[in-house]
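hey
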């Protein structure tokens, strides 16, 4: 049984103005998330990803469909029952949402107080969590005294206070600089690996998905338009929305402007080689060109590493006798995907 399972889930909000149209934020979503996974949900502004998260933690009721968390259909529960379910779902936010009137210790204590955890148990739990996130020395500091990265670490500790099975991270690194983002993502991976907590990351940054997620879900206009293993999605994006996201990180085929610039410098034939099968090495492909006496030069693209697996798209300029180049392209095409771009 999946830890989180959505079946035909939709969420429609009433019109924002008189005579306006209802807002269909989430449309007929089917999605399963297994225990122990890290899943990235990506989409541009208005895609519905943040609304989807609010459905999962029962902060918003679904309009239709069923939403099961650990086998319990949230759509059938009353508010008091939902409060108990939310103890199993931690949440971290883009703007940290720390209580300025409480110290770091007090912020982590807050959900334990709400859950009426005994005082002695609270003390041990808070101490353990602050050591876990690397902030034991900041226990009595105030939020205003912390850096952005430290604030997010407090947010993570607070989200873990009630020992949840699920951690939802809504744009949790968007307000952080790149170096701090790396540190926070490393901590989230530690949460997943050492505590076994399932993590759902909501983001518009594919770099975040690439570095942390096992699977990725792409949303557009409230719908899930593509989902799958991160490596598969990055190496072979099918939907236009996914292709736009992946293009922010992965150089595929040069666009018109890049192609025009390449053409001025490289008069030979330009061919893109797509290395999507890890069993075929670059050296094997280039050896085939050398064996046939074809001169070549790498002019565009690169190789990407996704969770220890590599793929890439390399555009090369081929020079030589026209028929020999044709034969070389055909031979290389038997090893990797090829596309002549000019």
């Amino acid at each position: 049984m999946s830890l989180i399972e959505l079946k035909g889930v939709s969420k429609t909000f009433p019109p924002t103005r008189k005579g306006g149209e209802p807002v269909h934020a989430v449309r007929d979503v089917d999605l399963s998330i297994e225990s122990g996974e890290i899943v990235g949900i990506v989409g541009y502004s208005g895609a519905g990803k943040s609304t989807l998260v609010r459905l999962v933690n029962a902060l918003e009721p679904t309009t239709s469909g069923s939403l099961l968390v650990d086998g319990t259909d949230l759509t059938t529960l009353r508010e008091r029952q939902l409060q108990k379910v939310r103890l199993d779902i931690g949440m971290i936010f883009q703007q940290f949402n720390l209580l300025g009137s409480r110290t770091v210790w007090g912020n982590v204590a807050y959900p334990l107080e709400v859950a009426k955890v005994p005082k002695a148990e609270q003390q041990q739990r808070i101490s353990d969590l602050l050591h876990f996130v690397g902030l034991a020395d900041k226990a009595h500091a105030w939020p205003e005294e912390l850096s952005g990265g430290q604030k997010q670490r407090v947010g993570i500790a607070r989200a873990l206070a009630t020992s949840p099975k699920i951690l939802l991270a809504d744009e949790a690194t968007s307000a952080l600089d790149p170096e701090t983002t790396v540190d926070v993502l490393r901590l989230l991976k530690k949460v997943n690996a050492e505590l076994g907590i399932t993590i759902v990351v909501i983001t518009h940054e594919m770099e975040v998905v690439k570095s942390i997620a096992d699977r990725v879900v792409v949303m557009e206009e409230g719908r899930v338009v593509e989902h799958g293993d991160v490596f598969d999605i990055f190496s072979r994006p099918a939907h236009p929305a996914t292709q736009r996201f992946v293009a922010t990180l992965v150089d595929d085929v040069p666009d018109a402007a890049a192609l025009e610039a390449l053409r001025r410098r490289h008069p030979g034939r330009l061919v893109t080689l797509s290395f999507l099968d890890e069993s075929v090495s670059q050296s094997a492909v280039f050896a085939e060109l050398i064996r046939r006496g074809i001169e070549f030069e790498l002019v565009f693209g690169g190789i990407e590493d996704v969770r220890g697996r590599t793929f890439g798209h390399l555009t090369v300029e081929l020079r030589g006798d026209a028929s020999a180049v044709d034969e070389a392209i055909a031979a290389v095409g038997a090893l990797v995907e090829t596309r002549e771009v000019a």
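The two ends are 50 Å apart (CA to CA). The chain has a mean pLDDT of 92.
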